[in-house]
Amino acid sequence: MVKEIERAGIPVVHVCTIVPISLTVGANRIVPAVAIPHPLGNPALAREEEKNLRRRLVMKALRALQTEVEEQTVFAN
Amino acid sequence: MKLTLGYIHIRDVQFGPATEIKGGVLYVNAQELIEKIKEDERIAGVKVELARPGERVRILPVKDVIEPRVKVEGPGGVFPGMVAKVETVGSGRTHVLKRAAVVTCGKIVGFQEGIIDMSGPGAEYTPFSQTYNVVLVIDPVKGLPQHEHEAAVRMAGLKAAAFLGEAGREVEPDEVKEYECPPLPQALARYPDLPKVVYVYMLQSQGLLHDTWVYGVDAKKILPTLISPTEVMDGAIVSGNCVSACDKNTTYHHQNNPVIEDLYERHGKDLNFIGVVITNENVTLVDKERSSNYTARLVEFLGADGAIITEEGFGNPDTDLIMNCVKISRKGIKTVLITDEYAGRDGASQSLADAAPEADAVVTAGNANETITLPPMEKVIGYPETADVMAGGFAGSLQADGSITVEIQAITGSTNELGFSRLSARQY
Questions:
Q1: Which of A11, B312, B375, B427 has its CA 20 to 30 A from that of B3?
Q2: What is the DSSP letter of A19?
Q3: Among the listed ranges B75-79, B110-114, B342-346, which one has the minimum average pLDDT value?
Q4: So what's the ipTM on this one?
């Protein structure tokens, strides 16, 4: 899906837990997620902390979307 | 460390007034077995059914298959840390009720368990069509949370296997085999001219119905470690794992791991089998990185020339497999991988979710997306309505006449990644 949307000229950020798979399938902008059963959250955290975590992930993905890349890039920080 | 396995060949299973083995027939006192299982207050009801090779019987949804065994000499007991006390096993003498099996059946999550057909085309795909099965159909008390339900059914199967295994305590085995696991310096010195091979045994460890236990420890919580192959044979590893049942190791698979048996077979002939490293397949990237780092270091530490790596499951564990392969290969140690494929129903898709150039020697156990139609059976043990929703099934899988069209991933053990199956490839 990542590649098909990009083929249509729309940049994509792939938020995913297992970065090596994302690299293998050819995503260009990758944001590492939390865990396979809960990529975008963490049930071990308190409600407020988890909301912050989720916000950080979304903000990071939005920043990645606006970043020019020349090669496959993992936005680790 | 030396383990003697005494195989008692079971030729039939029947209900009887006492649980015993006479003339190769395993007699089961169902009432005694039910009472044993119902000691667990999480279990509301249990039915005991028998299923023999060739019968027109289907069993679903299958959670685990366990071989009945009994420890007759030496330390420990069967399933240490689960049923017996957590003593180190793998030495002494253990009796095996060969071709007998306990099959647990229960609607835990419903879509995550497997199918066993005792005859017809489906029987070709599962090794458990060839065993004399004592099937437990287990209902939990109302409102029992899924994790508790899983634990109750898992323990019921292990307890039943230990209970039936007792029948073999005083029986003279038909066949006896010995397996030795010497201390590492001796193992290394014994065959100095043969290549030293380590087995890397990956254990599924991703949560409910995806877990494995080692001496009672949840494998997701271990760092990769060494285990004697005789400990594995003696029940140190048990399964809690049946999702997409084709490539999950039941407890029976762990007790009878063919990679370990074949490495023993060739030990001292064309290779020196020096050890087993167990590792896990966890749900975060940092766990995968840590475990594969640690695994590669242990394999190097043992002084291996080559490693055989078996995966359990598919999808993200393909990454654990590839990380293990790459990191071990980069230490100058050759690797061979055993996996299966999800290449689509036409076989044209990418087989694994991950890949690397270092993975240049790979054995496949088959394409789990192949579909098969299982004809109706005279008798269904368990809950047939789960066929529509099980992994490998789809809406309409269960036909009105009782036949089931599914991907072979729904069949217990069909593409087992230890090679415990009869699938093979043929070139036309």
A1: B312
A2: H
A3: B110-114
A4: 0.83
Name the closest residue on chain B to residue A35, using Cα atoms: B284
Catalytic site residues of B? 242
Domain map (residue ranges) of chain B: 2-410
pLDDT-derived band at B390, boundaries 50, 70, 90:
low
Phi/psi at B370 (nearest 5 deg)?
A: -60, 140
- Taking the model in full, what pTM does it have? 0.94
Asked if pLDDT for residue B84 goes beyond 80, the answer is yes
Query: Which residues are CB-neighbours of B4 under 8 A, at least 6 positions away?
Result: B73, B92, B93, B94, B176, B177, B178, B179
- By Cβ distance, the residue of A17, A25, A37 closest to B207 is A37
- Taking an 8 Å cut-off on Cβ atoms, the answer to whether A32 and B318 are in contact is no
Q: How many CB pairs below 8 Å do chains A and B form together?
A: 36
Closest CA to B339 of B243, B417, B247: B417
Pairing of strands B20-22, B25-28: antiparallel
Cβ contact (<8 Å) for B284 and A19?
Answer: no
Mutate which of A23, A25, A36, A53 to disrupt the B interface (most B C-beta within 10 Å)? A36
Angle at Cα B66 formed by Cα B213 and Cα B221, nearest 5°? 5
Q: Mean pLDDT across the stretch B342-365?
A: 94
- Max intra-chain CA distance, chain B: 64
* pLDDT 10s digits, A21-32: 999 889 999 999
| Count of other CB atoms within 10 angstroms of residue A1 | 9
